[in-house]
Specification:
Among the domains are: about 100 residues, Beta Barrel (Elongation Factor Tu (Ef-tu), domain 3), CATH 2.40.30; about 70 residues, OB fold (Dihydrolipoamide Acetyltransferase, E2P) (Beta Barrel), CATH 2.40.50.100; about 100 residues. Helices cover about 40% and strands about 20% of the residues. It is built from seven helices and 14 strands. A hairpin with an 8-residue loop joins β11 and β12. α3 runs antiparallel to α4 and α3 packs parallel to α7. The N and C termini lie far apart (about 155 Å).
């Protein structure tokens, strides 16, 4: 053995101790010695199957590789998402909208019955509120009596016309008699058989007869004017009485407020026994089968939106349980800020451009609404498929025409009642 062998062994041992000192954890006791004693076991090779502690450099490299892999997966996922959604426009600034049909009193009265409350489903024609109808019932009775009186008056006018015809005939006969007497007296006066005074009386009788005939003819003309040109049912006085009956019937119908559409009752603010005035809002009916979505897209998203494009809608209220399908049907006439109570004054002071949002109306499938009803005001997410460009841009398309009207009231019962009153008071002749 040479002298170099102990020296080499010592150097190897020092290098090994330095390596172990760098890999070992710091001592827990601050007062402990900062050195580790080297034992004979340190020179022994590690046992097979025992895992070796990684060095700090190895751990750092592994962390960097893991971070890079995560970044690569995220980038790949973003690329796939952009590739799959390249022809879509989406927004989560979208809400369910719909009609709120007000139920308003049309006549003053006292509430005597309420048949619906908030959250209750009603059908068109269902009674919602009843008002006290005693006063309008009295008015109806007075109108019916006035109609009967008018019919009887028309028949009286017809009878007066017949009497005036007789008066005219009588006056005409008296005039003929007076003319004959005057002619005979004139002939007798020529021969001196009749005194001059008798001839003057005969002339006076003729003038009285002519005046009586003129008076009788005037009475006949007056009676004829009251009944000519129409039958009893179309006489002006009878028509006025009929109009009063119809007015009373309308007021009577307003005592029962009905649901104009199918829907759910909301905003009830009427109480039993309350005295209400005409025009007082009592409650509202919301037709949930006729709701839509107002999706507030940014103005920079409108270029590719077209009428009729399909839309996928997710409602927060239903989560993943339901996906709604709709189509683009219109665009609002202005942004939300343009119709605000205090619109922006961009011409005053410093100006900062803000991208505006415009409501795009999206029609929903009624069958899907039947399966998963929505409520007005719910938040939704809308995604429009812009791959089709066959229709006109949504910003250039004209608004579609909508006609909504209530069915006319059934007037046959009141018509039958009017005909019965006319028949009971002398017929239609």
């Amino acid at each position: 053995m040479t002298k170099k062998d102990p020296e080499e062994k010592r150097k190897k041992r020092e290098r090994k101790e330095a390596r172990l000192a760098s890999d070992a954890p710091a001592p827990q006791d601050p007062g402990a010695e900062g050195m580790y004693e080297t034992t004979a076991a340190d020179d022994e090779p590690p046992a097979e199957g025992v895992p070796q502690a990684a060095s700090p450099g190895t751990i750092r490299r592994r962390r960097l590789l893991l971070l890079g892999a995560v970044a690569l997966v995220a980038l790949l996922g973003w690329g796939i998402y952009e590739l799959l959604h390249a022809n879509t426009e989406s927004t989560d600034d979208a809400y369910v909208a719909g009609k709120v049909v007000p139920i308003t009193a049309r006549e003053a009265g006292t509430v005597i019955a309420i048949h619906a409350d908030n959250t209750q489903a009603v059908k068109a024609g269902d009674t919602l509120v009843e008002l006290d109808s005693d006063l309008v019932t009295v008015n109806m009775a007075a109108a019916e009596a006035a109609l009967a009186r008018a019919v009887r008056q028309v028949h009286a006018d017809n009878a007066r016309l017949s009497a005036s015809d007789a008066e005219v005939a009588e006056a005409d006969a008296a005039l003929a008699t007076a003319r004959g007497n005057l002619a005979r007296r004139k002939a007798a006066a020529a021969s001196g058989a009749v005194a001059t005074e008798d001839l003057a009386h005969a002339g006076d009788d003729l003038r009285h007869a002519e005046a009586a005939l003129a008076l009788a003819q005037g009475h006949r003309a007056e009676a004829l004017a009251a009944v000519s040109g129409s039958d009893v049912a179309h006489n002006p006085a009878v028509l006025t009485a009929i109009a009063e009956i119809r007015r009373a019937a309308i007021s009577q119908g307003h005592m029962r407020l009905i649901a104009p559409v199918d829907g759910v009752v909301a905003q009830r603010n009427v109480q039993l026994g309350e005295q209400i005035a005409a025009g007082t809002p009592l409650m509202a009916v919301v037709p949930l089968r006729d709701v839509w979505v107002d999706a507030n897209f940014r103005e920079t998203q409108l270029a590719d939106l077209r009428m009729g494009q399909p839309v996928r809608i997710k409602a927060d209220a239903w989560g993943s349980a339901a996906t709604f399908h709709g189509r683009v049907v219109g665009l609002s006439a202005g942004s939300g800020s343009a119709f605000a109570l205090l619109p922006a004054q961009n011409a005053s002071g410093n100006w900062i451009k803000i991208v505006q949002r415009l409501p795009v109306r999206i029609a929903l499938d009624p069958r899907e609404l039947d399966a998963h009803p929505l409520r007005i005001g719910l938040s939704v997410t809308a995604e429009v498929d812009t791959s089709t460009h066959s229709d006109r841009p949504v910003a250039a398309a004209p608004a579609h025409r909508v006609v909504e009207q209530l069915p006319p009231a059934d007037a046959s019962p009141i018509d039958q009642r009017i005909a019965a009153i006319i028949a009971a008071n002398g017929g239609a002749n």
